[in-house]
């Protein structure tokens, strides 16, 4: 406990770190206050009974910190921005113009960010119209259409752009990745209510207090397992040749390229979830089709058909996203330019093949891990855990929480170590999402 308070004291002594943490907390407070401001022309008293918190709506509501179900001005949160970022990343693979921008350094990144913002406005406008038509019932509207739709489409678009601006300010003036922190705060905001709901269900119904304690222990075990895999790396030794310049010797040292077991992060789950929403949409357009039973089964969150297809898609998308974010050819070329080589492997194509083979081997357990984590919430629901509490047993929410917390703690520890203070831990260091040396060729995921 003394070590803990000493660490907090050291954090507060560093002026830059103290200002960054304070700014982060203030920006997040602004976001949380805004998430309770209801859209103009909406009767808040009529929303509670009309909102469905299951399935897709429940997932979006979790990411938005409850704003989705409250019809807040931040109801859409940062999800349109995330969607736009994914689209731009994919365009950077297939469209020559965006491929060229990626190679132009800082100016290219600025143009890509500008295109992402434009696309965010377009996606937010379309999603806002769909949200108002599907989630706000007629008895909750205090203003007649079409004025209600036009007004609140503008408000929702402005709200998403403001949240995006808050995220960028947190990244610039605060600590950690702003967009990720906003999503994390939204997820954590749902945790106390989920705990209370599950506790009441167990103490007043089946299972009792012992079952609730077992669930908490299981949740902690899943979190520990997730941390272990998220931080897991396969280190490739790189030897740099010696160079004599004057009377000094340069190089001749051995470094390591840490290839992450879960290099794709949470993106494969997001891609797979987007595809798993298609069967439910198709079933609505063809209610009398002979294959409608299969579509309903695939859209059922707790069915084995849904979870099997979901797991297969995650494994496939893990390989896909890893392939587009890690470039073994670029890693090999950069090592060769810097006079580095992998011991026992010839430079050039053999090095590229070696790195590609290692990535393929470690991606398999990483993809299986993601698939298991993604279907754990469904398995928890099948054994009686409430759907709200079950979402914290895995899936996108758990990986985001673990990744963002590790990333933020790693940045705080870097500030401490740079100023010759002890780190956050007595032994070892928080690895989190540390930078990959020696030109990894990897682009960090959006989330």
UniProtKB/TrEMBL annotation:
Record field: transmembrane: 21-42, 73-95, 115-132, 147-166, 178-197, 209-230, 264-286, 306-326, 362-383
Keyword Protein transport: yes
Subcellular localization(s) per the UniProt record: Cell membrane; Membrane
Membrane association type: Multi-pass membrane protein
Protein's UniProt name: Protein translocase subunit SecY
Family: Belongs to the SecY/SEC61-alpha family.
General function of this protein: The central subunit of the protein translocation channel SecYEG. Consists of two halves formed by TMs 1-5 and 6-10. These two domains form a lateral gate at the front which open onto the bilayer between TMs 2 and 7, and are clamped together by SecE at the back. The channel is closed by both a pore ring composed of hydrophobic SecY resides and a short helix (helix 2A) on the extracellular side of the membrane which forms a plug. The plug probably moves laterally to allow the channel to open. The ring and the pore may move independently.
Species: Mucilaginibacter achroorhodeus
NCBIfam families xref list: 3a0501s007
PROSITE patterns for the chain: SECY_1, SECY_2
InterPro entries assigned: SecY (IPR026593), SecY/SEC61-alpha (IPR002208), SecY_CS (IPR030659), SecY_dom_sf (IPR023201)
GO cellular component: plasma membrane
Pfam families: SecY
